[in-house]
Design a protein that fits this description.
The protein folds into 3 domains: about 140 residues, Nitrogenase molybdenum iron protein domain (Rossmann fold, 3-Layer(aba) Sandwich); about 120 residues, Nitrogenase molybdenum iron protein domain (Rossmann fold, 3-Layer(aba) Sandwich), CATH 3.40.50; about 170 residues, Nitrogenase molybdenum iron protein domain (Rossmann fold, 3-Layer(aba) Sandwich). The strands form 3 sheets. The protein has a 5-stranded parallel β-sheet, with helices on both faces. Strands 2-1-3-4 form a 4-stranded parallel β-sheet, with helices on both faces. The chain has a 4-stranded parallel β-sheet with strand order 6-5-7-8, sandwiched between helices. It is built from 18 helices and 13 strands. The protein is α/β, with parallel strands linked by helices and about 450 residues long. The structure holds iron/sulfur cluster. Iron/sulfur cluster binds next to helix 2.
Amino acid sequence: MTERNYVTVNPCVMCQPMGSVLAFKGVENSMVLMHGSQGCSTYMRLHLAHHFREPVDIASSALSERGAVYGGSENLKKGLKNVIERYNPKVIGVATTCMAETIGDDVPSIIKEFREENGIGDDISKDVLIIPVSTPSYNGSHVNGYIKALDAIVRHMTKETQEKTPNGKVNIIPGEHLSPADIRELKQTVSDMVGPYTLLPDISDTFDAPILDELPKIACGGTAIPDIADMANSMASIGLGFSKNLPVEYLAETHGVPEHNVPMPIGLMNTDQFFEALSDISGCEVPDKYQNERGRLLDAMVDVHKYLYGVRAAVYGDPEKVIGLVTFMLELGMYPVLAVSSSKSLDFCRRMEAIIDEIKPDCRTTILDGVDFDTLNDAVRSVRPDILVGDSNGKYISQAENIPLLRIGLPIHDRVGAQRLLMVGYRGAMELIDRITNTILEAKELECVKPPLKMCSICEG
Ligand code: SF4
């Protein structure tokens, strides 16, 4: 697409260990230690604190030139000791950064030595669990780091040989990061439809905490450790998104937990599929509460049809969210002219084409996978959308091209309320409709949508 694609210019993704932070912060009483230079953890703390508007502690082994030459074992052990003494966590996620991976530190062996030297066992009921995750950023993005960390957590806490004691629960594992508001919505829905469940990672409180008289060292909330250990006994797992969901696969292959993979419940059709999966598992009908929400969503779709029909949209971000948003836009009669997965994804292009063929085969969409902002900028210039949909980092394209930007995704650091943005379920779809439509209407008022929006023949009449 770009004529200058010999190098990445302004990556459209965050680095891989950032994904592991998003996963570990959804586990009760956990801390993350970055094995690498201090700058890595500072960048991540800053990014997440601006997005969630919460204090975010991330420890660092503070590797310097000496560690880079002689190995980082000493630093990592000191770091682990400090974290245990100061935070007293139940879980420490050790994520490697580019430098630790490049010098070739054998992190699992260092952790094993540390545990032996300090008499730390591996009993999840009493010992601090130290879980390594290999996350070199030159080998993947935050999307990979997130799912790798979840996989490591589930593998570490469920014993391969444990006897099966069915617990009647359902496991919910989103394949990509969702907002605290989304997680709350999923929890309520699964509880109403199935009853007992375990959702991993639960960031609904850890990244959106109520104010307290005294700030806890580790944010309250998160998925409880015994619940994670019990995921092997659940009656089913639902993975949200079709990207390779490693923990869902592991639970199926090792513990025989039946797996259901459905798209992220964004928009009408995808949310219907989520409810169908819950119905299949529980054998229950969809309650009136959700039937009514669905009805209100259909009503809202009819209401905004005259504003959104034919509106040309460019969507970029994490692959499953882009697929969900583009599907919903097609349902709304919009014209998604550009769909961009910022992270490299095995089957993004194929799945995107299949969805467009199914819903609106005449839609000519440029589909790009694993590109940087430079390439995205060129593509936006060429397709001239009416609206851009993606994270805050797209604002420079928005300003340069005079195209309104609807902020969805991570990071959103130049607006408030990212933690409260709801996107999933029927209620999330209604919020999306309002946000998309109001962005278009405001842009029209400011006359920055050019050419004027295309109306369908009925509206024009
Ligand atoms: S890309 Fe690598 S060096 Fe840069 S912040 Fe991420 S982990 Fe650290």
